[in-house]
């Protein structure tokens, strides 16, 4: 894909697949079954790759909380229909990344306040260094060295570039 907004590659397609394997192994060593809740739309690609590598029983659902990447003060409405009961279940929220962590922190609080789950965890491909503290276990493959804005593999720029198959720095 060609775009003047795509800069230096941060994670290649192979590094992404290696990261998926790392997260899948961590989760498979921890869980026997779980409800996976994908944060849409960003978490769709990571979820699709991840679930095919998991070695435990899963049920899947989705949640939405539109936001601008890096916005730690996201106040948009959370949309979750609970298509699958969470009562007494191990629940894993899945997203492509935790950037500032503001939105994920809101999603965690929403699940904890409204549902009686057995446990709540997060699975992402990577996290950024300045993320806020999120009070649940986090399973990820990579911790980025800086807070560069990134695009690709689910991460957008102006609602575009999610389908870039690797992760790259955004050129403004």
TrEMBL record:
Molecular function, one GO term: glycosyltransferase activity
- Fetch the InterPro entries from UniProt: HGPRT, PRTase-like, PRTase_dom
Reactions listed under catalytic activity: GMP + diphosphate = guanine + 5-phospho-alpha-D-ribose 1-diphosphate; IMP + diphosphate = hypoxanthine + 5-phospho-alpha-D-ribose 1-diphosphate
**Any idea which UniProt keywords this protein has?**
Glycosyltransferase, Transferase
Q: Where does the record place the Phosphoribosyltransferase domain?
A: 17-144
Keyword Chaperone carried by entry: no
Could you identify this protein by its name? Phosphoribosyltransferase family protein
Which organism's genome codes for this protein?
Answer: Vibrio plantisponsor
Recite the lineage of the species: Bacteria, Pseudomonadati, Pseudomonadota, Gammaproteobacteria, Vibrionales
């Amino acid at each position: 894909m060609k775009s003047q907004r795509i800069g230096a590659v941060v994670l290649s397609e192979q590094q992404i697949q290696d990261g998926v394997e790392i997260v899948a192994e961590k989760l498979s060593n921890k869980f026997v079954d779980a409800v996976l809740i994908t944060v849409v739309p960003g978490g769709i690609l990571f979820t699709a790759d991840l679930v095919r590598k998991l070695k435990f029983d899963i049920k899947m659902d989705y949640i939405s909380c539109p936001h601008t990447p890096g916005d730690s003060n996201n106040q948009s409405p959370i949309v979750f229909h609970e298509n699958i009961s969470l009562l007494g279940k191990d629940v894993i929220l899945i997203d492509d990344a935790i950037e500032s962590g503001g939105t994920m922190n809101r999603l965690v609080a929403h699940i904890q306040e409204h549902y009686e789950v057995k446990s709540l965890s997060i699975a992402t491909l990577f996290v950024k260094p300045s993320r806020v503290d999120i009070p649940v276990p986090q399973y990820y493959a990579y911790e980025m060295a800086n807070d560069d804005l990134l695009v690709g593999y689910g991460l957008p720029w102006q609602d575009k570039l999610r389908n870039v198959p690797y992760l790259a720095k955004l050129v403004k």
